[in-house]
Amino acid sequence: IAPAPVGPAPTAAPANPYAPGAPANAPTNAPTASQAAAVGWAIPLFNKQVDSFADLPEYQELTADAARAAGVPEAPGNVWLLQPGQQPCKATLGPYYAMQVDAPTKNLSYGVKLLGCPPPARTSDDSDVAAAVVSEQPPTECQLVRPQPVAVRVGQEDAQGHWARPTTQTPIPPGLAAALPAHDCKSPDCEMLWAILQVTVDNKPVAWTGAVNWLAIPPGAAPDTQCSWKAEVLEGTFIADDAGRATRLAEGQDPPLGLGGVLADRGGPRVLLTGSTGVYSTYDLVAGAAKLARHLVWLILPAEEYTVDARLGPSCEDKH
């Protein structure tokens, strides 16, 4: 939500749970017991690569002048925190901060704390998700709508840990199914598997996210060979146009980002939020299309940290 070094300020962005003093390579994870009482919300603003952390503390609070001198964009005023199913909370800007990110590419992550709103409850996925919105008036008509499960076909494991073919399923929504690449995948030689979430506003799909697998099963394959079976995997986020047809979201999705939700009001869906640890992209939603409004990298981690395991079917992670 903060102004970029060049260009206008977007109107919304994900807000980030923080644990003051926590190692910056995992700022959104649960804090230690000694930090739990200090958990709150923060707006990430800026990132700077450095050659060394010499003479730099792991975590420090900064004045506005010190943050400005470090190149951090000024945080906006009139910030409201939106969480699913809750009324907007007017936040007060707290101190700026800088955190070390001890990764192969050493970097510093900067942001500003938000005060005056209840800290993340950490009781569910929704309790740790929020959007920061800039508005002079209370954005009471604006809601953060989260993705919900809408289609699944994954199979199940037996007592021996062997995967069994699906016996039940909920179908992929037609608008998304029509956008998937065609495959000659028929049982028993192949099983098409999927797990899909959907954001719905006014009883219409706005976006989908999830994974589809085409799992090749060799003839006569024994259950003990399941982890050698090959699968073609498709994962990502898709936007529904006004007719409900899906288009895959590509711009601003390197690395691939999770679908956080959609900001909507009485006029319909307005902003799409996507993000992962250290990076987010927001999109203006107009006439069934998503236009990238803001892409911010606020923390640099190794590339493997952004790898998404979208395999469905046999669970093989602990069997190699």
Identify the notable features of this structure and list them briefly.
single chain, 320 residues, mainly beta, eight-stranded antiparallel sheet, five-stranded antiparallel sheet, disordered N terminus
Which segments are poorly predicted (pLDDT under 50) over 5 or more consecutive residues? 1-11, 18-37
Radius of gyration: 22 Å
Largest sheet: 8 strands, antiparallel
Based on helices, strands and strand pairing, what is the structural class? mainly beta
Our count of helices gives 2
Order of helices and strands: EEEHEEEEEEEEEHEEEEEEEE
Give the overall form: globular
Our estimate of the beta-strand percent is 35-45%
Helix content: under 10%
Could you give the order of strands across the largest sheet?
3-6-7-2-1-8-4-5
Number of strands: 20
Give the integer mean of the pLDDT values: 85
Distance between the termini: 43 Å
Question: What is the fold's blueprint, element by element?
Answer:
Blueprint: E1 12-18, E2 40-49, E3 59-62, H1 64-69, E4 79-82, E5 89-90, E6 92-101, E7 107-115, E8 130-134, E9 143-145, E10 148-153, E11 156-157, E12 163-164, H2 174-177, E13 190-201, E14 204-216, E15 231-240, E16 246-248, E17 258-265, E18 268-276, E19 279-286, E20 289-297
Antiparallel strand pairs: 1-2, 1-8, 2-7, 3-6, 4-5, 4-8, 6-7, 9-17, 10-13, 11-12, 13-14, 14-15, 15-16, 17-18, 18-19, 19-20
